[in-house]
Amino acid sequence: MSTTLIHNGRLIGADGVPAPGWVLIDGERIAACGTGEAAPAGADTCVDARGALILPGMIDAHVHFREPGLTHKATIASESRAAVLGGVTSYMEMPNTVPPTTTLRAVADKQAIAARDSAANYAFFLGASETNIGEIAALDPREIPGVKLFIGSSTGNMAVNSPEALEAVFSTARVPVMVHAEDDSIIAANAAAAREKYGNDVPVGEHPSIRSAEACLSAAKRAISLAKAHGRRLHIAHLTTAAETELIRGEELVTAEATPLHLLFDSGDYAALGSRIKVNPAVKSRADREALRAAVADGRIAAIGSDHAPHLADEKRGGSLKAASGAPSVQFALPVLLGLFPPAIVQARYSAAPAALFDIRHRGAIAPGNYADIVLVDECAPYTVGDADSASPCGWTPFAGVSLRHRVRDVWVNGTLTVSDGRLTGLTGAKPLRFDRPADPEKTA
Ligand code: DOR
Ligand code: ZN
Question: Mean pLDDT over all residues of the chain?
Answer without folding.
Answer: 96
